[in-house]
């Protein structure tokens, strides 16, 4: 008779335990300070971010614990804590879960990736870059990053299957991460392609009266922060996850189109048309995805049984996304994000006429806020402080505003850009796989990308 031995505690678990203990101390703030709400919010954010990053427990369990503790301690009202369930991105994920199952089961994704496999070298880097660039192309067509995630997740999974990478393998994880980064990060450098960039432009105009054109914004941020960064990220993915594809370069014989494939293609093309034209009709991409999902399970029209909602859909990603959005709302409601921004503004030594040094200082402020409040909230907070930063640095207000952008394009954790975790969650990829790539890239970006971005901006006249 053998005895089960306990698994040794790894570094991720140790970090999670330490963060949990610190969070518990912060949650007891009413016992030792009057200004307790911000400290309690800091505790719940620290706990959530750390456990999501380390994967010490399932990501949706972390979200549920966050909901419970926040409500029991009355850190924020229920409409704030559960705001993620009201957010369109969460319902887009719900629709995406059903669409992903449909695309996989009827084999439509396999047709889409066949062209990619047949026209690219049978090398991991080429395949990873190909799926990432497909996301970049979609970024110019579709203004919703979350909608792009719904399309890219099944394509990345089908590509992994086509190349012989089984589930739960590192090579498969890498292709999904490549798809997630390609459809999200370069899009931050395209003015109307993400909620974050549109929020940034809108707040800058409403508070400071400064308007950014599509060309000027994209020309500044897309080449270095977008394309060059994507090449580096793909290289990292290949180094960390790469494996030799099993594809031999011979095209597979494609079967005739089935009725299910045709119906699904019509549904997806209609959804794509509505996603691309959302600025015209005003229908949220989430409701388009939800309608497409409902059509997929509608008798005589769809190709899935309605039982898929109870038997096959994994609701963990749905709860996780609701948790990420809720955490950002908690940080905003309690004033944690603004308090952190004010603290950084008061303590980060802003250098007048400092050139690259000033650029780094502005980045540090934005990156710290992004870590706590996530990218969609960085722009409103940073833009509010832009006047004070401009006075301290002697930089024009326009240059200060444009210097905020790298802070929501360069970050170390996937949850800081929800569309990245949406893609990974839909494909069943652990968050730690994204952390490995983004954390290393973050260090490289500090040394390489940010100086190049500053020099590029100076050449264009955007930065002093």
Explain what you see.
The structure is a single chain. The protein is an all-alpha fold. The protein is built from 25 helices and no strands. The chain folds into 3 domains: about 10-75; about 85-315, no CATH class; about 320-460, no CATH class. The longest helix is centred in the last third of the chain and has 30 residues, at about 430-460. Helices cover about 70% and strands about 0% of the residues.
Shape: globular
DSSP summary: helix tally: 25
Number of strands: 0
Give the helix proportion (percent range).
over 70%
Compressed to H and E, one letter per element, the order equals HHHHHHHHHHHHHHHHHHHHHHHHH
The total number of structural domains is: 3
Radius of gyration: 22 Å
Q: Report how far apart the termini are.
A: 73 Å
Q: Low-confidence parts, pLDDT < 50 over ≥5 residues? A: 1-7
Strand content: under 5%
Question: What's the mean pLDDT score?
Answer: 87
Structural class: mainly alpha
Major sheet summary line: none
């Amino acid at each position: 008779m053998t005895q089960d031995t306990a698994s040794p505690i790894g570094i991720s678990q140790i970090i999670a335990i330490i963060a949990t203990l610190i969070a518990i101390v912060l949650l007891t703030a009413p016992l030792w300070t009057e200004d307790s709400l911000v400290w309690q919010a800091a505790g719940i954010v620290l706990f959530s971010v750390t456990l999501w990053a380390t994967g010490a427990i399932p990501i949706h369990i972390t979200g549920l614990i966050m909901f419970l503790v926040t409500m029991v301690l009355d850190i924020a009202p229920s409409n704030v804590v559960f705001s993620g369930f009201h957010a369109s991105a969460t319902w887009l994920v719900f629709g995406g879960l059903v669409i992903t199952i449909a695309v996989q089961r009827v084999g439509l994704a396999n047709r889409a990736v066949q062209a990619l496999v047949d026209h690219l070298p049978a090398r991991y880097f080429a395949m990873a870059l190909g799926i990432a660039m497909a996301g970049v192309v979609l970024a110019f067509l579709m203004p919703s990053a979350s909608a792009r995630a719904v399309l890219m997740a099944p394509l990345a999974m089908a590509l992994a299957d086509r190349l012989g990478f089984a589930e739960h393998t590192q090579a498969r994880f890498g292709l999904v991460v490549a798809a997630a980064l390609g459809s999200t990060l370069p899009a931050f450098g395209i003015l109307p392609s993400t909620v974050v960039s549109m929020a940034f432009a809108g707040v800058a105009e409403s508070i400071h009266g400064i308007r950014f054109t599509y060309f000027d914004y994209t020309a500044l941020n897309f080449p270095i922060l977008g394309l060059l960064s994507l090449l580096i990220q793909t290289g990292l993915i290949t180094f960390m996850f790469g494996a030799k594809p099993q594809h031999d370069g011979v095209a597979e014989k494609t079967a005739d189109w089935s009725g299910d494939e045709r119906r699904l293609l019509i549904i997806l093309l209609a959804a794509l048309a509505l996603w691309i034209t959302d600025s015209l009709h005003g229908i949220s991409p989430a409701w388009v995805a939800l309608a497409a999902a409902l059509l997929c399970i509608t008798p005589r029209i769809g190709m899935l049984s309605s039982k898929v909602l109870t038997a096959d859909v994994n609701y963990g990603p749905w709860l996780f996304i609701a948790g990420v959005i809720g955490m950002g709302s908690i940080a905003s409601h309690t004033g944690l994000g603004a308090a952190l921004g004010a603290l950084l503004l008061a303590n980060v030594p802003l250098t007048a006429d400092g050139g690259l040094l000033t650029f780094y200082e502005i980045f540090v402020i934005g990156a710290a806020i992004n870590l706590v409040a996530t990218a969609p909230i960085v722009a409103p907070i940073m833009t509010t402080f832009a006047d004070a930063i401009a006075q301290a640095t002697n930089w024009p207000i326009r240059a200060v505003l444009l210097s905020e952008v790298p802070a929501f394009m360069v970050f170390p954790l996937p949850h800081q850009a929800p569309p990245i975790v949406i893609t990974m969650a839909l494909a069943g990829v652990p968050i730690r796989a994204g952390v490995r790539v983004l954390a290393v890239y973050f260090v490289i970006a500090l040394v390489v990308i940010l100086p190049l971005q500053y020099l590029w901006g100076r050449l264009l006249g955007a930065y002093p």
